[in-house]
Amino acid sequence: MITIQTKLIFKSKEDKQKVADLMRRWSSCARFAYNRLLEGHKRNELKRELQGIFNLNSRYVDDAIMKAKSVLESCKERQENPRKVIFGGRSLFEKLKKRHINGKAYKKLQHEWQERRKGNLYSRGDKSKKGNLNTRIEIDENGAVLRINVGERKYAYARIQAGCKKGKSREELLKAISTCGEAYSVELKLKNGKVYAYFTIEENFPEVAVTKENGVIGIDVNAYPNHIAWAQTDENGQLAGHGKIPMPELVSGNSNKREYYRWQYAHEVVRLAEKKKKAIAIERLDIRDKGKRGDFSGRKSRRIRHNFSYGSLVEKIKILAKRKGIQIIEVNPAYTSVIGMLKYAPQHMISKDVAAAYVIARRGLGLKEQIPEGYMAILKDLDADELEELKEYVNRTVKNKQLKKRQLQEIERTIRLLQSLGSEPGRGPRPLDGTSLGAYSESYNLWRVLKVAVVTPLSPEKVLRDVSVLKGVLHSGQVGRPG
User: Fold this and answer.
1) DSSP per position, 412-445
2) Which of 248, 238, 250, 244 is nearest to 269 (CA)?
3) Domain limits of the chain?
4) For residue 404, with 0-12 CB atoms within 10 Å meaning exposed, 13-18 middle and 19 or more buried, which class applies?
5) What is the pLDDT of residues 339-387, one digit of tens each?
6) Inter-CA distances, 9 with 39, 156, 480, Å
7) Which of 179, 91, 85 is nearest to 138 (CA)?
8) Residues with Cβ < 8 Å from 207, sequence gap 6 or more?
9) Residue 207 burial (CB < 10 Å; 0-12/13-18/19+)?
10) In the CATH scheme, what architecture does the domain 212-364 have?
11) Predicted confidence (pLDDT) per residue in 241-292, tens digit
12) CA distance 189 to 121
């Protein structure tokens, strides 16, 4: 989907008032339809009834019912109570209920909530009508104009202002949309007394030509230090290359600047995949809260992650890859960093972030990770007494109270996990030889145990930076006892 945000400049106050009235009636229609759907009414029953009540044509009414239905289905998917939906926004509504807010501040909040509640209009496109019948883009000598149906053969007109910096390219895109004959949807929103229009058209992507048959490039996006770590594999999952793309511009600056650079970095990733002729593997979930790992304070973590906009960057990579016919594979993010740090960072002498990207790439191929023999020896001999010794060591060594609490909680969870697995000294699960495509199931629990048993004694007060110390442990199967 391609969405273009614009502002509408009306030719007259009368036209703006007509559109504002139309948005108010449409918003009321959507709320009314939502409540009727809750009561079990059907779309066909509502369609005729709502046209008369709100003085809207059948297309506007149908779009309002569709929007109401999507809100209802979204609530059910999130397992929320659909009867508690508040149109206009719950957060604003809760603020308005607080009695200590009054005067200008209260009026400002009330105005914003009313705009969100009543200032909406959605019009679906229709290919048979060559675009959109109710809200149509028209082109004249001065640029793009939006013609809005406000009644029976009555229209309001507004100049489409596509913005200053990128206005030219946006206007050219709007002209292309208006003349291509494809369906495009238009959504109007009222903000601070101004009407904004969002034009959306479905993008036709080419068939996927670059697949994982030739290997995969795994992408690990990091907010701190802010860079993209990448690792490429061959078709068998062997490491074939790696690197990092620094992203200093995403830490600060205004939103327009950061948005520009997100596109640039996304292009760089896709160009890499296009050059190597490999699919791209990325993690499914959102960025982790690395402020809880002892790297830096939570406030700084929140600021960096907010400016960093991980989700926006990943979405851009996905869109650009689809445009180039490159396969995108989304994988389970569980323990990619832990497995990368413990297994591949010391093996290949690469950084933890690159090692995590390598794990992501291998998962993109469908490969499962086995625990190396050296680490299995540690698991075989590990028991609750050793972990109790580790607790005492953390108590003596770690000065930061919050970090100490988290370390002790993790050790406690590990002890309970070992007890639930029925672990005894001298016994432990054995991996198969070689790498398989699914015969040996990954045990994320055991990787968590390894992290506590191996990393904590080596680096109790901070995140382990020098992974070279793990090389000896990996091959000897012995980790130094805490002193």
Assistant:
1) HHHHHHHHHHT--TT----PPSS--SSSS---HH
2) 244
3) 2-201, 212-364, 373-476
4) middle
5) 888 889 888 889 889 999 999 999 999 998 888 877 777 777 676 677 7
6) 40, 11, 71
7) 179
8) 325
9) exposed
10) 2-Layer Sandwich (3.30)
11) 999 999 888 777 777 788 888 889 999 999 999 999 999 999 886 444 444 4
12) 7
Strands 184-191 and 216-223: unpaired
Cβ atoms within 10 Å of 220's Cβ, excluding its own? 28
How far is residue 210's CA from residue 196's CA, in Å, rounded to a whole number?
39
Q: Nearest to residue 158, comparing CAs of 174, 177, 136, 129?
A: 136
CB 340: neighbour CB atoms within 10 A?
28
Whether residue 453 contacts residue 334, with contact meaning beta carbons closer than 8 Å, is answered with: no
- Number of Cβ atoms within 10 Å of the Cβ of 325: 14
The CA distance from 451 to 413, in Å, is: 12
**DSSP-assigned letters across all residues of 98-117:** -TT--HHHHHHHHHHHHHHH
Burial class (CB in 10 A: 0-12, 13-18, 19+), 345: buried
Please tell me the distance from the alpha carbon of residue 9 to that of residue 50, in angstroms, as a whole number. 30
The 3-state DSSP composition of the chain as helix, strand, coil percent (nearest 5) reads: 50, 20, 30
State yes or no: cis peptide before 225, omega within 30 of 0. yes
One-letter amino acid identity for 215?
G
CA distances from 225 to 218, 228, 298, 306, 343 (A): 18, 9, 15, 14, 22
- The overall pTM is greater than 0.70: no
Q: At what angle do helices 469-476 and 373-381 cross, to 10 degrees?
A: 70
Radius of gyration, CA atoms only, the chain: 28
CA distances from 200 to 5, 6, 144, 174, 300 (A): 9, 11, 15, 10, 36
Residue pair 242/358 in contact by the 8 Å Cβ criterion:
yes
Bridge-partner residues for 158, per DSSP?
A: 10, 146
Which one-letter DSSP state was computed for residue 207? P
Tokens 């009561």 found at:
39
- Assigned token pair, 81: 């109570």
